[in-house]
Design goal:
It is built from 9 helices and 8 strands. By secondary structure, the chain is an alpha+beta fold. Strands 1-2-8-3 form a 4-stranded antiparallel beta sheet, sandwiched between helices. Strands 4-5 form a two-stranded antiparallel sheet. A two-stranded antiparallel sheet has the order 6-7. The relative contact order is 0.16. The protein binds iron/sulfur cluster (2 copies).
Length: 295
């Protein structure tokens, strides 16, 4: 059912991973071959497609910006918190598979089983990918820490000490959208992870300047498709309200999927101009904010 390689890919991976393309190739093989990248229900669709990978220097000055309360939170830490000898941060975005996105029909009020299952079970597989990166770092003689699996990790009121999305922005993975997700070359419907390492790896140049460069609403004043799709008006003209969003999951979605324990909405990540790639802009305009502030 899962092909010939129903085992860890890392053990048989014979290459050295240096720049973001190498890591992308490695994770692409991983999501294609690893049997855990499948939904447990129905036709056991793949959960994720080929990831987008970025690499930041641990010394990038933007990491210091994340501890400003108006950016993430004063308790946000820098890479050297996890590892004093940190040199690089590897960040990845894993897009949900074509099959899961195709199951998300536009007119339905509830998300499909494939989506809610992919969100929960996908989070488990994101940890598999994080650990796969760690193992390949170690295979190359380096050391690594996975912030989100470290005992020192914590978050309060949706404000984490390590924000995967912000780290992804710094590492060249993508920019933010009005819906608060990261827009990447593989769209915005997906999950993220990162690993801090003492290996000195080539940085992925950022193909953007402003924090919202890829979002049509934030950079050109048109679209707002994500806000219009939200069934509980959690997204206004400026930002997403995480409290309203979470209440929708608990009140409307969890009861419908009680037997499975699933609860995640994804209306604002599917059937949008940014669901499968960077939306086409009329002109190349940067949404640059000199203070790196997010709305
Ligand atoms: S749907 Fe439109 S407004 Fe919303 S994040 Fe995507 S590009 Fe921006
Ligand atoms: S996940 Fe659903 S409830 Fe939350 S902001 Fe997006 S569309 Fe609205």
């Amino acid at each position: 059912m899962f092909g010939k390689k129903a085992a860890y890919v890392t053990a048989g991976y014979g290459q050295t991973a240096r720049d973001h393309r190498d890591w992308q190739e490695y994770l692409t093989e991983f999501v294609r071959e690893d049997p855990r990248n499948h939904l447990p229900e129905g036709d056991c669709f793949p959960i994720f497609g080929p990831p987008v990978v970025g690499i930041a220097s641990a010394d990038d000055p933007l990491f210091a910006e994340l501890s400003r309360p108006e950016v993430v939170a004063s308790h946000h830490v820098r890479p050297d918190f996890w590892m004093p000898e940190a040199r690089s941060v590897i960040s990845f975005f894993a897009p949900f598979s074509r099959e899961i996105k195709a199951a998300y029909k536009k007119g339905e009020r509830l998300p499909p089983l494939e989506w809610v299952s992919g969100r929960l079970n996908g989070e488990v597989f994101i940890n598999v990918l994080r650990r796969a990166i760690l193992r390949l770092v170690e295979k190359q003689g380096g050391q690594a820490v996975i912030p989100n699996l470290d005992l020192r990790y914590w978050a309060e009121n949706w404000l984490p000490i390590w924000s995967e999305r912000h780290v992804g922005f710094i590492a060249g993975v993508g920019t933010f959208g009005l819906h608060a997700g990261l827009l990447t070359e593989k769209g915005a419907a997906g999950r993220m992870g990162s690993v801090v390492t003492n290996l000195s790896l080539p940085v992925r140049p950022r193909d953007y300047e402003g924090v919202y460069d890829y979002c049509l609403w934030k950079s050109e004043g048109r679209c707002r498709a994500c806000a219009k799709r939200c069934p509980v008006e959690a997204i206004d003209h400026e930002r997403k309200d995480h409290t309203i969003c979470a209440a929708n999951g608990a009140k409307h979605i969890h009861p419908a999927y009680l037997a499975w324990g699933y609860h995640a909405c994804g209306h604002c990540q599917n059937n949008l101009p940014c669901s499968n790639g960077i939306p086409k802009k009329r002109k190349r305009v940067s949404s640059q904010r000199p203070d790196f502030r997010l709305d």
